[in-house]
Write a structure and sequence with these properties.
With 162 residues, the chain is mostly helical. It is built from 6 helices and no strands. Helix content is 77%, strand content 0%.
Length: 162
């Protein structure tokens, strides 16, 4: 196995494990909150904001996994009617557009997280909000790089080469 293949496999396992852990934690926290509220009339004070943050992380890590697996939303109206080089060119342009969109969102979220850090915004348990929001620029950057790879090299070419 090549070093690139090992790194790709490690990142894939990390993303998958993080996604499974986040979903399981969200589910357990939500069930605990329901049981505590219904049985004891009170819940965990920090559960609601923690669950909102978990949903944000699940969305971003899920988007990264979808880009990795080619399972992201795409409109392939013209792709159905094209073959060969024209189809590859159109797919590359679509991936390039998605790359630029994700790169723009990565930059905007980088600025947002920086402003949150400067303002000293906090979330549950008085923890800095930017710690949890940092998944935004990271996730959008990873997605932009994956779309760029697919635009330049070709969709799923990395998996075929490995």
């Amino acid at each position: 196995m090549t070093p690139l293949a090992r790194i790709n496999a490690l990142i894939s396992r990390l993303e998958d494990s993080l996604l499974i852990g986040l979903v399981a934690s969200l589910l357990l926290l939500a069930v605990a909150q329901i049981i505590l509220r219904n049985a004891f009339g009170q819940g965990i004070l920090w559960a609601e904001p923690a669950m909102r943050i978990a949903v944000l992380w699940i969305a971003m890590v899920g988007g990264m996994v979808a880009c990795r697996e080619g399972g992201h939303i795409k409109i392939n109206l013209f792709e159905v009617y094209l073959r060969g080089r024209a189809r590859r060119v159109l797919a590359s342009l679509a991936h390039l557009g998605a790359c630029l969109t994700c790169a723009t969102l990565a930059y905007a979220s980088w600025l947002f997280v920086g402003y949150e850090r400067m303002d000293g915004m906090t979330t549950f348990l008085n923890l800095p909000a930017w710690w949890f929001e940092s998944i935004l620029p990271v996730g959008f950057t990873v997605m932009a790089l994956r779309f760029l790879h697919d635009a330049v090299v070709g969709e799923r070419a990395l998996d075929e080469a490995l």
